[in-house]
Design brief:
By secondary structure, this protein is an alpha/beta fold. The chain is built from 12 helices and 13 strands. The strands form 2 sheets. Strands 4-3-2-5-1-6-7 form a 7-stranded mixed beta sheet, with helices on both faces. A hairpin with a 3-residue loop joins strand 9 and strand 10.
Length: 407
């Protein structure tokens, strides 16, 4: 077998990569499985470097009982579970269990590890419903059965795991990396084992993208009333584009729509209008502000009767609305009534208030829960909440479980 290294991370959602005290992927809990190649071509010191690298990643994660869970499996000629996702909930205990792994050696039967991943480790016996799932495969070369590896990887991807493939060394097989990874953006390379640590931040950042492989129908409702200066409206558009960057936009993936509202509500584009991320972002960048009053209720009504209706929205995906406004609506009772109708439909309603003019109670009226209310001092501060907002938009748990209809 060639002396090369592949690192594969299967994942599906979460927050940002933190630095210092902030924990990576802290926006929502995840179930992460590390799958380690222990075959005979891996020298003992390099296997130790794998374990050190994994401990370094675990150190950056938000591990805990109701947070991220970790599992580990190794493979050579056979695969073996070192510990399941529900065995440890303490970070130090998890790292210690990784440090104590002994290498067994053997062939490189990657397909057996991937099969056991989707049949057992990510089954309902060990993995939590509604939680993002990650699996990281580390190997020093092409699998002994590439066709079977590809087939098992496809089953993992079809199950919703995001797969990141990292090849280490000059002899790595690009085709197998691409076969395992979810997208071309999920393939990484390192020159040697010692340089793995340099990839950690990029890998964790990619892994923690909240919306990867999670199709949703999301509508932005943008206040364009007269109280918003032109340069601030431009900041809103920039912010919306930055949120779209988190989404896995595509025909069978996330769809995006935009409504702008003032004295009138207008659909800028519907959910099925643009099939890719770049065209969606360009359409947002080209929105021209109309100005007027703040008739928020008209936008909410248009959301319910048109944009997220069954004519344009898909019944099998989560439907999310993000309302961004700088002040109270002109018709508070109508806004409240329309927001309740939207929540009765099961939409996840996120409310973003900018500045000091809006009243907290109206934001809470619009939002599905108190956790779905966001406030910033000014439009320049919007970017500070993009990680949390995108992560919340892509969470899988049912909004209806937490629904708080306003009486």
């Amino acid at each position: 077998m060639n002396n090369k290294f592949i690192f594969v991370l299967l994942f599906s959602t979460s927050a940002s990569f933190g630095d210092g005290s902030e924990q990576a992927c802290g926006g929502s809990p995840k179930d992460i499985v590390f799958i380690l190649d222990e075959s005979g071509s891996i020298y003992g010191p390099d296997f130790k470097k794998q374990l050190d690298f994994i401990q370094s990643i675990i150190e950056s994660l938000d591990v805990g009982l109701n947070r991220t869970h970790i599992g580990v499996m190794t493979f050579g000629t056979t695969e073996r579970v070192i510990f399941q996702l529900n065995n440890y909930t303490d970070k130090n205990e998890t790292k210690a269990a990784v440090a104590n792994i002994k290498q067994i050696r053997g062939q490189t039967y990657t397909h057996l590890a991937l099969r056991r991943l989707h049949q057992e480790m990510f089954s309902s016996n060990y993995s939590r419903p509604g939680v993002s799932r990650v699996a990281m495969v580390i190997t020093d070369g092409e699998s002994d059965f590439p066709k079977l590896t590809k087939e098992e990887a496809e089953l993992c991807k079809n199950a919703g795991y995001v797969m990141l493939a990292v090849g280490v060394g000059a002899a790595v097989v690009q085709a197998e990396l691409e076969a395992i990874a979810s997208t071309a953006d999920d393939v990484f390379k390192a020159d040697n084992y010692s340089s793995l640590e340099t990839l950690k931040k990029k890998l964790v950042s990619q892994a923690c993208k909240p919306c990867e492989n999670k199709p949703i129908d999301v509508a932005f409702l943008l206040d364009e009333s007269t109280s918003i200066w032109g340069y601030d409206f431009k900041r809103v558009l920039d912010f919306v584009q930055s949120i779209i960057d988190y989404f896995d936009v595509g025909p069978n993936r996330t769809h995006v729509a935009v409504i702008a509202f003032a004295t009138k509500s207008r659909v800028i584009f519907r959910l099925n209008k643009y099939p890719d991320k770049n065209r969606t972002k360009n359409a947002v960048a080209n929105i021209k502000q109309k100005r007027g009053q703040t008739y928020t209720h008209l936008a909410l009504k248009q959301l319910r009767t048109h944009v997220l209706s069954s004519k344009y929205s898909r019944s099998w995906v989560s439907r999310v609305a993000i309302v961004i406004t700088d002040g109270d609506s002109d018709y508070a009772k109508k806004t409240k009534a329309e927001a309740n109708l939207c929540k009765k439909k099961g939409y996840r309603m996120l409310a973003v208030g900018v500045g000091t003019q809006q009243v907290q109670t109206e934001l809470e009226t619009i939002a599905s829960t108190a956790d779905d209310v966001y406030k910033v001092d000014n439009y320049s501060s919007l970017m500070a909440i993009k990680d949390k907002l995108a992560s919340r938009a892509c969470e899988r748990e049912s909004v209806q479980l937490n629904l708080r209809l306003q009486k």
